[in-house]
From TrEMBL, chains A, B, C, D, E, F:
Alphabetical list of SUPFAM superfamilies matching this protein: Ribokinase-like
Xref: Gene3D superfamilies: 3.40.1190.20
Species name: Aquimarina algicola
Ranges where the Carbohydrate kinase PfkB domain occurs: 1-312
Family annotation (Pfam families): PfkB
Protein name: Sugar kinase
Similarity comment: family membership: Belongs to the carbohydrate kinase PfkB family.
Length: 334, 334, 334, 334, 334, 334
């Protein structure tokens, strides 16, 4: 069985019910989420062995994080405790043209204060064949950067496939490191690049457009720049508004370009974590199918996540395959 | 005043709130539902006298079923108790391309163990002028089949109009009887056929397409085969996805073909029970209007059910008439 | 800082959750609302000083009204108490082609029994530069009519700008006064007319169509008739159904005609109070921008209200400006 | 089978959840309640035929009242509609030493405007052997007084047993009639007096203490005064605080005095309607048992109501009998 | 680390919120529970390795059971799937003298249809040093009896300590086996007896009273009868009513009698599963402390369960130890 | 009118519903709370003018804090914004002997980073006659200590009465200052001491017992030590368990000792903020009554807070007076 290891912060998402604003009701709903942990949960639902490494608060909030991951079958045995609090984000969900607003309380969180020396990467990488990281982790603190780099170096040496989702978030990166240099340093240790012209332009200082031609040029460019990279997977989104999206995916796997058909989500339930659903679908696909089917699988997984509440994609492989087969009418299954 | 009698199982629908999956929250919502009881409730809301016959558990769950039917004015005085439990179905509501999933717990339910000898059909059919049945009932157990057959024979002798909704559900029919033979036997006792090419093909082994021409041919065929039948009413649905449907209805009443205009439900609230809403609208229509208006009424009733939570169509005659008159903008009524 | 004074009834809106009907659940949700108070709250959220004058019940319900207005920064120091109850409206929210239904319990409410002599208009109008009224107030009782008239006369004398939203609701006006004469009397005291051909035709007995040409003719006509009026602002709505609307706004400011682009609300969250959001946006716009931008601002404010639960528009100036700038994709703000 | 007819107003009880105050949350819960209707529902749960006569609003609120009564098996066929609204009461539930607060919105309600001429008492009293009234009804309006008086006169003539619960509520009686004279006039038409020294003192202007001796004297006095009366049933309550009560009942049936043992309710769930539960238990008891057992039954029914949410006592005869038999430990029944 | 294996049915508990009756609201709450699984969860919370063996439905309900156990760290890798549904129980929670009512839907459940041949006891008992069973399991079906007997025989051979909670439930045992003979047969394979005079009398046909003297005599008697037994642990409960209990525990460990102090639960939150909390506390205690402290620990664990919602005891060892140390004031821990 | 100024941190309390643990449900409820702000809200409910000074996050969470204070009439015009997050505490509510657990996320919060230079004490203290502080504020950070000290010095100079609630919380005070020295420094600037032997012993290093005699000695001692102090007010609590408390209050006002009668709270709704309710009641009492009545008022206010959900005491002066008058039965007020 495949084993995928992920590493990253888990936040508690706290939000009023439905489209209410915080000052309209004292009823809240919470989910846990974290871009890398979302990937782990999704991969676990798809039948893969997974382990997530992070640091949580040593209180009942941190305990609930572990309960949450365990519930979905993610191994939590390497999760560390800290006397710092768990990071939080508050969400006011928008609708139509009104944007959702997220407010973070994550500075100085348990994960930002991770103790690198406590991570036993050798235990983590035992029987592991995939390691996934995102650009959020090195953006948080020097500790999290160091821990990730160490993990990547060890994984790389062990020949574990490494997927990079190097999303650059300019509102983070407040601890002193140069974002672009650092991301390039870490991408250089990776094999699969999840991103498109935007991400490539950020890393390489280029200006590829969003056209397929330019996507291919950019993909070749980043593969040339970072020679460990072999394949580039991108997704594109058209947002009519907060409730109505269309998504499509494309790839350059070193030899060929493929693009999926577009899927339309006319009634978005929850947009958060859809990128993570794509990444999880992609990893599962690359572990089990050929590249083109992996891409279709990733796109369909991403589409389905829009219909799931919370941060993680709780759908099954069977449901995703059914979407690929064109069953889009959502008829009741008895 | 008209009196319509219905006979069939009532299940408890249990579901998480909104689009949540069962493992995401311990909050649930329940409704009672049963295809024939849904018809009775809807007919009661439309101003008709109704009586539903079934067997429920002798505990507080069964008591709540009676409370529920009584609330909406359905006569429950012939409902029987059993030491077997009430049937249940769990629902995880899908969205967009994600299917809703239903899981049943109905084998060996109170209704499956119905005691045929306890039903006093003479009391039930006193002042009754319509009896409605569906293909679910004979599919459940030999007991339910026998009870239904007895009811149909008595109703037929009394000259009560009988409407048949002979939906064939292949996942049922596990007690030994041949589904097709049995359904034909029961349809032969009926006067109004609710179904189209699909249902006709199943019963007659034919292969009519869904085109109007073929619908008419099929309708004529089934009327020829089962000479008690006089009219055939069908509805067609186009599902863009789980949230967006279009519906239309058509009929062959022995002399003419009519088709309604299409109604579009861009934001489906609850799809379950929409077929029952159609049947109820049709029966009400046939009891009060001419065939063509009955068909329009049934289609409009069906459309409105998509906007109602739960299994039963809780709209009024006035609301349905307003839809027929073209008031589709949903403006606030003060 | 600008100060806007509003005067009118506040009702308690009580409704089942979601699309449920009242007899489907004993869970309810409440909001306070009133067309003029909604304007005050919205103007307060946009950064203006506001004061609302009304009469509420002297019990904990009335106290909660004051708490509610204070929460959003509206001055409640002139609100009066009465031993009559607060007015209420029950709402069953429709969907798609099913209309929402509102049932009022407001006859003989605290506000209808307002004691005109208790209102200290001089205190209210201190530092005030805008007074807003609607046609609901004079429709309720002779007391409310007299109070409003007095307020308008004093405001007019003080040179305060007066905006009139003279919606004629034929189901009200049960206390003996002639609606049309009365509304004309009060519009004559006003400077800004919020309404279009419908409202103008009602007041003047004319028959202008909804075309822009006719709108301009009607606007000129009403300005000619009531010489205090200088500008006419209208909005038009296309309702595909209860969940899907398109809105647009237009004006004749005495010298030029302008029309906004159309905004489409594909997934309406709450339609109630959208007209008040338009009025508030307009007043804010006229206080801070030129007429054309004020119109765009009003239309965008109105669009955003469709995404907010409850009666009042709780959005910020920044959010509205962003809509004017064309940011309609509803992407998450972090 | 016995049939009990009740007559009186039904109010909608609207309250925040738990012990919250109205301004702490916009979540509400509703129940319908009315002292006489509560008696009808309880008697229906105990297996008796019941009919309630009242006037409700002609909107969906009034419709929900009928649904509610029907749910529990109360005949609603004589309930009238009115264009006046249904009466409402808001409740903030207290705890320990903090009092619950009730605020009424019932002046000019549908029931206050009842049209006496619409009541068909002959239909109501067909096969009826018990009529129950309370002092709330004549306190509301001249209409309700007149309707009640007519009902009592007809019932009396037909030899139907009449129970009177002549609670005097000084905050009502605002329409001009003298409360004491009127209550005496109506009690004079009754056979069973539900009340004790307090109520007797109010009616007769006496000053009996709450001691048993004085209770007996008072009972004899009122029976002597109103010669149709034959029996007097009282209950006494010791409230340690809002959550902890002790109740006891006593009677003078013309020949003997009996007192029940005291029942202790250490954790009150809902106090409202406990007096109505007593009255219903008493009527049921007098219809089925001897006087002493009827008294025990009434006291136990009253005790159990303290554990039921809402206004009506939804317990079964079996549950009440079990309390009389001394099963007070509340152990789980499987 | 210790490993405890449990074997038994898991049911879904479905209940209205608070003290509502099922017909008062369509809002429900669910928990999973099963006497043996409750023990496993509690032992897991206390830091022990646990594995639960059962059969669940192969649908999303069964999946949620596994999610639930995994959440609390119980190994689910040996749980089997079945096409039969998961057993259910409905609960209406009582209060004070009103009993809670439970209605079961478990006949023919997934667990009753367990396939004995699928259980790999050798895997289950690897590194296991404790096996716990209750009298519910052999009472359900011949399948469950056979599976349990096989497990006990294997565990016994492997020298694993076996605790028996042989509760006799006369409403079960409908599949033909003699309850008393069967329970004796299984207790004979066990080492620790959890029960007192009631259970001993049922098994041995004796009539020991509930006095401590008789408890000791009975304990000696059952140990003499079933020579594998070495210790007997009992608990006694005084129920003032459904909300107010007092509990105490006692033991005869073959050489000495000990009794704990009494703990008073003045405000019971949830009584279900308190016996399982006792059993789990006892097993944990016997694995870590001496017999007398184990008994105190079990009693304190049981007391704390009364304050936890749901079936399982989610408290920590630290919380239980604190109760033993006499910290009963429930002061806030920061 | 009196004006009371308070200064201190406001935290968001986030908790599962009822007695659930965080991992049992994703439904949460929130309240805002802060010991000093709680005092301000309570004083505002009692009819006093109040202003609270603090720093909140500049996001929608901080905005909701202001909305919350404004709702209850507290002046928020001097509240500052910060890019640091609002402090949070998570609560799992215990029951009976199970402790509630609070977990804080307040390090580095908006308030800890308060900018002393931004506070305009002169505006705050305009028309102010009372300033209240607690020992939480100087315990948080050097910034908060400095700000408080400045405020106390200015208030003292202006002759404003200063009340000190110098609760020493050893888990705070992590920024370097010596707690005892600092608290003494600040108490020296105060006039009213709220505390008893515990607090006095902490400040003075003494060892007074909890007896009244020793309380008086301690009170005299602290007054002697800090000569600005004139009166000492204490409260004592007996906790049978988390749900059942008894409270009493005592004072030494420089010339006489008084003790209130004990109030028993048999069913605690929410314990948090009861000390703040006492302080607010005391301040109101001292502003309006003599010392002895102020003490009774404070004790009754404190008792009532135990019945209110959330952190602030939302009761009226009338309700408190009624408790003092001995109305403890909690009977319904209509």
């Amino acid at each position: 069985m495949n084993k995928v290891v992920t590493f990253g912060e888990i936040l508690m998402r706290i939000a009023p019910i439905g489209n209410k604003k915080l000052n309209q009701s004292n009823q809240l709903e919470y989910y846990f989420g974290g871009t890398e942990a979302n990937v782990a949960i999704s991969l676990s639902q798809l039948g893969n062995k997974t382990q997530h490494i992070t640091t949580v608060s040593e209180d009942f909030v941190g305990k609930a994080v572990k309960n949450y991951l365990q519930q979905y079958g993610v191994d939590t045995s390497l999760i560390m405790d800290s006397h710092h609090p768990l990071g939080i984000y508050f969400l006011e969900a928008g609708a139509v043209m009104r944007s959702s607003i997220i407010s973070y309380n994550r500075i100085n969180s348990a994960f930002c204060n991770i103790d690198v020396s406590q991570i036993d990467w050798d235990v983590a990488f035992k029987d592991c064949n995939w390691f996934h990281w995102t650009g959020i982790t090195p953006a948080l603190s020097n500790n999290t950067y160091s821990a990730l780099k160490e993990g990547l170096q060890i994984a790389s040496k062990k020949g574990i496939t490494i997927s990079a989702d190097p999303a650059y978030r300019s509102d983070l990166w407040n601890y002193g490191k140069n974002a672009i240099d650092t991301l390039n340093e870490l991408v250089a240790l990776s094999n699969i690049f999840i991103g498109g012209p935007n991400e490539i332009n950020e890393l390489l200082g280029t200006s590829y457009t969003n056209q397929n031609d330019d996507f291919i040029k950019g993909a070749k460019h980043i593969i040339k720049e970072h020679t460990n990279l072999t394949k580039v997977f991108d997704k594109t989104r058209t947002s009519l508004n907060a409730n109505w999206h269309k998504i499509k995916a494309r790839m350059w796997n070193g030899t060929e370009f493929t693009e999926t058909k577009e899927l339309e989500i006319t009634h978005v339930v929850d947009r958060i974590g859809t990128g993570d659903a794509y990444a999880a679908g992609l990893i599962h696909g690359l572990l089990h199918y050929d590249d083109a089917k992996a891409l279709e699988f990733a796109n369909a997984a991403c589409a389905l996540k829009h219909t799931i509440e919370g941060d993680a994609n709780l759908v099954t492989e069977k449901e995703i395959i059914s979407i690929i087969q064109g069953n889009l009418s959502g008829r009741i299954l008895r």
